[in-house]
Design goal:
The complex is a heterodimer of chains A (113) and B (114). In chain A, 0% of the residues lie in helices and 52% in strands. Chain A is mainly β and 113 residues long. Chain B contains no helices and eleven strands. The termini of chain B are far apart. Classes of the chains: A mainly beta (113), B mainly beta (114).
Chain lengths: 113, 114
């Protein structure tokens, strides 16, 4: 079964600064990869996903993520953070050979004015 | 996001009460899910339904009882809960129940058990 780690529990950045949220997975093959965002009191919203092809994936709200097979990583990036980006971010992995879908523990992002 | 709706949004119940959470999806999907989100813990998948049949049950206590009468509706029946069951309960749906199927989430029901 696959697993997901997000090494950073909480990250604080200044508005306008760049952002990178880390995600590492463990799976025997190339998985399906997702990033979701959860604003306070809300459900999860899909930011982007990777299935195959170009390893740099563009998502909504100016986010992108890069799949690196050699590092088993799928880090999320944004060049300039906005105050409205403050939220919890979850990386998730879906298995190619079945129904397993696993979420990471999440990284909480705080944005300083 | 109005694709997946959940009611009620907030629920307070005693340990001897019986209540139900409702989820409805308007996306034409065939799979629906219940997740539990507790503070400082990862999202826990509770139940998965595909074409109205339960396909996964992750060792959830019997005081939680799911029901999927059709592909658009999913219920979670609650009885004799414990205070540690207090959490945000999220419903999601997807086209299929495979690993590649993007899940779309409702806003959740915040449950407090006294």
């Amino acid at each position: 079964a696959q697993s997901v780690t997000q090494p950073d529990i909480h990250i604080t950045v200044s508005e306008g600064a760049s952002l990178e949220l880390r995600c590492n997975y463990s799976y025997g093959a190339t998985p399906y990869l997702f990033w979701y965002v959860q604003s306070p009191g809300q459900g999860l919203q899909l930011l982007l996903k990777y299935f195959s092809g170009d390893t740099l994936v563009q998502g909504i709200k100016g986010f992108e993520a890069e799949f690196k097979r050699s590092q088993s990583s799928f880090n999320l990036r944004k060049p300039s953070v906005h105050w409205s980006d403050a939220a919890e971010y979850f990386c998730a992995v879906g298995a190619r050979n079945g129904q397993n879908f696993v979420f990471g523990p999440g990284t909480r992002l705080s944005v300083l004015p | 996001e109005t694709g997946v709706t959940q009611t009620p949004r907030h629920l307070v119940m005693g340990m001897t009460n019986k209540k139900s959470l409702k989820c409805e999806q308007h996306l034409g999907h065939n799979a629906m899910y219940w997740y539990k989100q507790s503070a400082k813990k990862p999202l826990e998948l509770m139940f998965v339904y595909s074409l109205e049949e339960r396909v996964e049950n992750n060792s959830v206590p019997s005081r939680f009882s799911p029901e999927c009468p059709n592909s658009s509706h999913l219920f979670l029946h609650l009885h004799t809960l414990q205070p540690e069951d207090s959490a945000l309960y999220l419903c999601a749906s997807s086209q299929g129940a495979q690993g590649l199927d993007t899940q779309y989430f409702g806003p959740g029901t915040r449950l407090t058990v006294l």
